[in-house]
Amino acid sequence: MSEQSYLSIYAKSFNWAGFFLPKQTYLKCSALYDFCRVVDNIADSNETIEIKKIKFLDFQQNFNNHKFDDPIIKNMWQLINEFNIPLKVVHDLLDGINSDIQKNIKLNKKKDLLLYSYRVAGTVGLMMAKILRVNKKSSLKSAIDLGIAMQLTNISRDVVEDLNFGRSYINLNFEEIRSTIELSENYYRNSFYSIKEIPFTFRFAILVARRVYRKIGYKILRKQNLEDYRKSGKIYVSNIEKIIETLLSIFDLIKLSLISKNDDNIKHDHNLINEEINLNERI
Known about the structure:
Strand order of the largest sheet: 1-2
Order of helices and strands: HHHHHHEHHHEHHHHH
Number of domains: 1
Number of helices: 14
Helix content: 55-70%
């Protein structure tokens, strides 16, 4: 499978936004996505838990042992070395995906939800920011926030589908789905001003990805009740809607260019995560 195909098949919203990145940067982001997707596919396969655990452990050991005859692992190590990505962040990602390899999953606390969202997506936001040459600590924290926001959107969209896999990240009632979308909004807001710290040639692509993914949450809220939510099936952003969100991102880009406000005084909602994971060691 080519470097581009995982992104184009599994992550159409990200692939759309990636169109606005320089080609070499897109390929590096795609290599990161390939790594995440290959591991995620182990957890999401229809094989038995025992086989999935064996395959995951095998992949993890191959990664730790620098098994470079696997191009996915080789490309990931190149990213780690080129962009100084902390290994703790990669291990956090692997821990998050590994937590999905069990028969039944039930998260009962906000802390568990945020920890899981950091591990499987906040880590990806942080690594992506490193690839986009972001170095400022407060901005890297906001990159984590954008990843968490997008994961909360995913969880809100896929409640029924996840339950079919024995995974209950949030309960199947519309009040909890709505509150999860509202929680994601805090993290989307915290991510905005930091995009100013991304080099200009990369900035628009992130604004587009942020808008397109956030739109999913808005579409979920419009369902208003569980019956309509269930009837709608998997909620996605159509190509026409992507074009509209892309055009609106131009105004975001102008706003970022005109405002003097930065991300230095943002209060990141990381207290619950920091009870288990020291994020300062990751950035």
